[in-house]
Amino acid sequence: MASILFEDKTYDCNSGESVLDCLTRNGVLLPSSCRNGVCQTCMMHAVSGNIPEPAQKGLKDTLKIQGYFLACVCRPEQDLEIRQANTESMRHSGIVSAMELMNESVMRLRLRPIEPVEYQAGQFINLLHHDAARSYSLASLPGDGELELHVRHVPDGQVSSWIHQKLQLNDSIEFHGPAGDCFYVPGNPEQPLLLVGTGTGLAPLYGILRDAIARGHTGEIHLFHGSLHRDGLYLVDTLQYLASTHDNVHYIPCVLRGEAPEGGTIGAIDDVVINSLPKLNGWRSYLCGDPEIVRRLQSKIYLAGASMQEIHADAFTFTPH
Amino acid sequence: MHVMLICRKLLLSIYRRCCIPTIAVGYCGYTNLLEKGLHMSLYEEIGGEAAVNAAVDIFYRKVLQDDRIKQFFEGVDMDRQAAKQKAFLTMAFGGPNNYTGEDMRRGHAHLVAKGLNDSHFDAVMENLGATLTELNVPDNLIAQAAAIAESTRNDVLGR
Q1: CA–CA min distance A115, chain B (Å)
Q2: Could you give the C-alpha distances from A118 to A125, A126, A177, A235, B63, in angstroms and in order?
Q3: pTM over 0.90
């Protein structure tokens, strides 16, 4: 008989009983619908303990790796500690080690964590400031030793203004995380990868790109970075350099108005991507940035033949103040 | 009796090998044995989980491009939606599921509030039929799946 630890209470699971049934029996009501391991409404997160394979069927590999599972078909064979999906994870602190503007509004912020933080390039952390929290994606690789964030100065933004105007080197910052499902998964080194980002959506993609290269990815990697116009782009030289030194890496900066940098193009980024790559069967995609554009891209990429399991979308919903 | 059991096993093994990944099911000489008591469920005949997976890819893409109903799918998490389509098709193919009428009612109530009606349900049914036709499922099996889907109409529309 396995026991389940959930929200500081322990529940004894009868032999062959699912996590959902066990908790329901004890008066804990979790969201559920098909109760057959298909619709994913009952998805939860295991903090510790092994999840039996049938309870992860149909989940993306990035979720499996993190221990997400379906409660309605999870019949635990050993003790589990579980959480609702999307609950706050660990609290950390770090020291500001570098601050540098990469264009007029985007700052590269580096933090040296007090204790090691386990993460994958492309996940995000939630920076804490007074009573506010804001998500920023990790552009660094775990081996870098420091966390790298790309922070855009949002006009009148509470946290980004503080970062751009008040924060200093050696200040201490607290954050939660890491979290997120947009990261490179080794095991398929020849798979073609499509990375599309707008604005600071480049941050996770920059991490994922370098992660893929570092792990010996041989398949094509196409990185599209979109901005209203040229001023909003950054890391252009770095990315052009990566593309010129790696045969399989292609960098296409994309602007809506005005002139594009060399190798770039003018147009709406979702049109540019689909015109350039009309058939995406077998491709894995990572889409990060403006929610409206990410949603449109997700739909177009799926309609272009990509499998749902291979599309990783990270919409940057930003807080106005 | 003995001979019939061997034939049944042989036919089922041939069926399973031919059936996945395509789900074209021919009746051929099955009918005699079927009449004698060899019975496969609708779900097995259509092709089980492999059929559902093949169908979702076609069905969801059709629905996203159908002007009559695509608005109901806009702004919805695509991963969740695909998973729900899979659950729906599993049920429509007579597969294992634990949906109740109440689940269907609750799940669609917010769409009914936005104007979901018979014409939209009809459009979904049409896409389901077209999907199964594209997968070469025989007409009589399509009819059976359609009947199951049709039986959810009143619950889905909150009547």
Answers
A1: 34
A2: 11, 14, 9, 25, 40
A3: no
